[in-house]
Amino acid sequence: MSHVDIKEWMRRLPRAYRYFGCIFLIVLCTGVVAWLPYWILNGLHLQDLTVSWWRVPVMTPGVFDTYVYLNWIGESVRGSAFGGLFKWYALLLKSIWSMMASWSSVPEIWIVTRWISLILFILIVPWTMRLWSKCSRKTSWVIASGLFFALSLSIGLRPGAYSWYLPFAFFSIVGTSYVYESLNHERVARACVWTLGSLFLSMLYPWFFLFVGLWLASIWFVYFTRRNTYMYFGFVVLCIGSICGIALPLAHWFLAPERAAMLGIFERTGIVFARIPFFANTVLAFGAWLMLFGILGFVFRQYSKQSNEIIRDSFAWIVMVFLWFSTPFTGIHLYSDHLIGPTIILAWLSLSTVWNIGEQTERGNFQIQIPRFFQYFLWLIAIGATLFVAYIIQQPIRGNPLKFDSYAVHVLNWFALTVASWIVIRSIVLQRKQKKRFFYGVVLFFCVGIGIWGMTSVVLRDTDKLVPALQRVSVINWLRLNMSLESEICSDPESAPFYAAHTGLRIYPAEATLTYAVTNEAILHMLEVIVGAYDVQESKTESVFHFDTDYYRTIPCAAASKYSHNAWWYAMLMNAGISSEQANRFIGCRQETLDENWNRISSAMKQHQLDEDAFRVTCPAVIIPDEQRDYWQLPSTYQETRVSDSVSIWRSE
């Protein structure tokens, strides 16, 4: 059949057949994307597989936080209260587990849920982009497809925000824009429905929830205050009164003994009291977007349709700026790097807005005059964003190309701004036709390249780790069959994260256990007990226990962590003659706590004295690979159970 014949044949098909055919194709293609990296890994090790080539019994830690998320999934699907972390998404996890638990692995559960999210991404994101910007169907599909390939093939290989939440986040953010639009047209009931829906869908991930919640609050605040000036003053008085009224009871609630575990989690993850803002190159992107939309707003101020879209996007970016710089207002220092998630979504939605404005400019024959001063700024934004993309890409090229997946989100953030600014330059400043095919090609080529590079990085990085991981499958199966969810198990620092990830069990000192709802004292006691039985110095694992002791408490500190955000603040204060103690207090670094905790654990390491009673309580079962046996000093009552050729489980009688 010729090309024309196929199109005619497709046109004559009943609409239901076409819909089902498209959905089937989407399911098939997203399934390949979800499973492909692991099939490639299996293909490189066919001779070592103990299961069918399409199975994924184990997962290697190629992407950061993989084992932490997998442990959370394992706990969730097995009915632990820890599943509340995923809110309503845990129901989907449990449903899939109930159907697959008799034969599937925890990694396969995650891949299936990721597959579902990829399907939703394809079905939701192009549609939401059209709702947001009113761009053409083809443009929305190109932009969404580019983002799909770039994220799903690279950073989306990590369980979490980029593999699950994106379709829900897109829908919730676009829903927030509908609240904005509905209130502009006095459709309050419709705005209320969209408000509830947006809040519900954003609850999966705190940073999406914070952005959507703050933007919704701002929209409703503007709506009420613009209707009546007295409402503005009334709202201000109400807010001040509410804050004064609830501050003390809220403080008592937080500081109550029963909340010690919650406060422990906050401290361990680097949430501290401070007043200093955090700066990064993402902040420059915020400023560039606001400048871009400010210029567009000036140019299209007399065209109501374009003006409304520009104001809405500018409003969203202003909210993003306030969220990023929330510390001076709230006094709470958060790890703002996670804000890159909603930033990427807003950047690509803003790209669709600019793209559509460029297309409307060509179709509408607008008489646009841009002051030369503004033209200079537009060229500065376009060239600067392009240079930032090049700068980010060259970092892994010069360092380690196999770590590129960590840079993907930052590249995509600046790439969206790059494309948007060049569209403005070409369509509005130079007033030339957009050359849609050129921009379509640039977006797809670049994003597919980013995705393939990211996926290749993960696969090649994990190639050497797969065979040792496969050799542990029998131990995983034994633990799942013989240990209850309430079991507490100990292991060496390398094995603990692996087995915790693949069983959903609490295995100390896996990193995931540091995020459990337990107090700081309980964590430190657990580490003390383990280092009394496990020879840290001989096993050369001191750095792991140092990380476990501090566990991201160093985020607000100056130089104690690679995740530090405040080194330049600290250096500036020290150069001004301020003492290190005062500088640390200003930036929110509790250095005395870090020193006290590490002195306690390092002292226990050096003494290396087994506390048999405490060990029996903390570690009633111990996983010991043969190569680690010499490092362990166990109570005499512990008996060995051989669970594989090279691993034993030791338990107290």
Secondary structure layout:
Blueprint: H1 3-12, H2 15-44, H3 66-77, H4 89-100, H5 106-133, H6 137-152, H7 161-184, H8 188-201, H9 206-227, H10 229-255, H11 260-268, E1 272-273, H12 281-299, H13 304-324, H14 327-330, E2 332-333, H15 340-364, H16 372-398, H17 408-429, H18 436-470, H19 473-482, E3 488-490, H20 495-503, E4 506-508, H21 520-533, H22 536-539, H23 542-550, H24 567-575, H25 580-587, H26 591-607, H27 612-618, E5 621-625, E6 638-642, E7 647-652
Parallel strand pairs: 3-4, 3-5
Antiparallel strand pairs: 1-2, 5-7, 6-7
Written description of the protein model:
It is a single chain. The chain has 653 residues and is mainly α. 68% of the residues lie in helices and 4% in strands. The chain is built from 27 helices and seven strands. Strands 4-3-5-7-6 form a five-stranded mixed β-sheet. The chain has a two-stranded antiparallel sheet with strand order 1-2. Strand 6 and strand 7 form a beta hairpin. Helix 12 (281-299) packs antiparallel against helix 13 (304-324). It is globular and about 90 Å long. The model has no long low-confidence stretch (mean pLDDT 88).
